[in-house]
């Protein structure tokens, strides 16, 4: 019905559509009851054409509107109001200007451009090759869609604003989470598919999903073929449109359903008490380097949007490692980024953002890191974003590494130091008692001096980039042959240990050790100060067969295999109960918003005390140590917690503190088989005496009652 109405509109276009000057703000296509206002920014353009299409797959526009700079331009904003036009109309632009590439200008009136502020796009006709070079690509271009964002019933929904200290993040890929036939979903690989799996997420107990990039990217982009199989951009870390949800994650993108389908997901997750964090990529775009396609920014104003080589602006500065780098601290690019974030919070009810290669946001227009980067502080101080979680990957591909000193006050950081130190500790490297203690206690060595807090540290063992947790204990080396790059891609030093055999094995002892190591990692992560992040599938031993860079693997290598939920029910149970333990026990001990201060409770226990196998003897300077223990004193009636880590290859005995009026009870022992590896609340096991045996390569947790 919508398409028929649109077709009737276009048949009457010449007489029906009255053109008016329009407004320069807001940018994008903004419909109201009487028509649509179109506005874009280009400082160096000399002419702009607005193309209107009847259908998403029309080869030619039904109407071309030439914007008159005397009427339709205010400073560097081009705008027009099309009276009578409705939402669900398809549109694009042609922009002309200087073609002096040495000066950084890449205007080409033959290229059809998307609106950077579009709320939806269609790529039915898209041919990436045709967007490269000088040829006209009208018949194979993408089209933007006019979307009415006001027509949606939120049913009272709003961002959940859960405190950072209570957050447990679950990183997942929208398509990969349900794309496997084993998911049993009606709409596999979509936003709707995640909705179908909300009961699973609730049972696991996580509090927030961190969605790998959902901004529109070219999922048709084929990097190469391996054994006749095309390898495409699967991860989506190459966006081209920051306001539009990825069409392939929707059931009906051709009718402009992207906004509605994403909102349905957010609303459903919020009803389940689960927040939504978006992994956003403002450091580079899908247009790539000088040989890449022209999609929007290159054709609108290349010299504004990108860092170019100063002495030859034909080329791009590549701080991102992906071909180009967004000029984030140019005022208009800063505006686009902040407008985008505020849109996703205000109109889409998103709860937070993780910024891929976030350190690029700290680079000035000359590429040099700034002390007070405007875009970072604008995000920090935006009233609309005031309650929004903001998390930086505090490094970039050009060597800027800002762990512990990323600009801003409330920015949290992916703590790469946590990942590396805990991986080394658990695999049995010696002399790491001090490093492990810093990480478990919230990385005060990185954050406290600058006035930051434990909640500024997002702790993780694995993420999308690298080994899965199961592969971390199953492979010493990466196995990326399926990527078609001769196993040269991906990092070489994974700080992993295969427990004696590379890859899959039928050896029960090795498999049992691997399961124990997985539980060790899970226990440490969920017992540490800061914000824990888990990768989807780690809780059921998802494997990528040793591939530590599955960016191009839209296949079983990357997909969540739902048969593992039953196969590895013991691992799922451990994660579930460990999450429950973190939530239920000792808010002052495990979920602190401040660093430990040495306060002593009524039983004489400090808020944190460190030990080795002997009390108060942690062995900070012992180069051979592979053990650590700590006591967390409970306050205001809470239980005390005593944790013992034995990463040595033999069993050891650990002294336990004496506490008046209470006894120690064992909650976790990763050396035990399920269900004795972690006890349900009320079923803890009494521990007598002042010595507790801890088996080799295991973690034991006691609580006082």
From TrEMBL:
Kindly state a single biological-process term from the GO annotations of this entry. Answer: glycogen catabolic process
The protein's matches in Gene3D superfamilies, at most eight in alphabetical order, are given as: Glycosidases, Golgi alpha-mannosidase II, Immunoglobulins
Q: Does the keyword Transit peptide apply?
A: yes
Every Glycosyl hydrolase family 13 catalytic domain range: 171-582
Highest taxon of the source?
Answer: Bacteria
InterPro entries (UniProt xref): GH (IPR017853), GH13_cat_dom (IPR006047), GlgX_Isoamylase_N_E_set (IPR044505), Glyco_hydro_13_N (IPR004193), Glyco_hydro_b (IPR013780), Glycogen_debranch_GlgX (IPR011837), Ig-like_fold (IPR013783), Ig_E-set (IPR014756)
Q: Name one GO molecular function term.
A: isoamylase activity
**Pfam families given for it?**
Alpha-amylase (PF00128), CBM_48 (PF02922), ISOA1-3_C (PF21156)
Keyword Hydrolase listed: yes
- Give UniProt keywords alphabetically: Glycosidase, Hydrolase, Transit peptide
SMART domains membership: Aamy (SM00642)
Q: Which family does it belong to?
A: Belongs to the glycosyl hydrolase 13 family.
Which NCBIfam families has this protein been placed in? glgX_debranch
Name recorded for this polypeptide: Glycogen debranching enzyme
Report the source organism.
Answer: Chroococcidiopsis cubana SAG 39.79
For this protein's source organism, the top of the classification is: Bacteria, Bacillati, Cyanobacteriota, Cyanophyceae, Chroococcidiopsidales
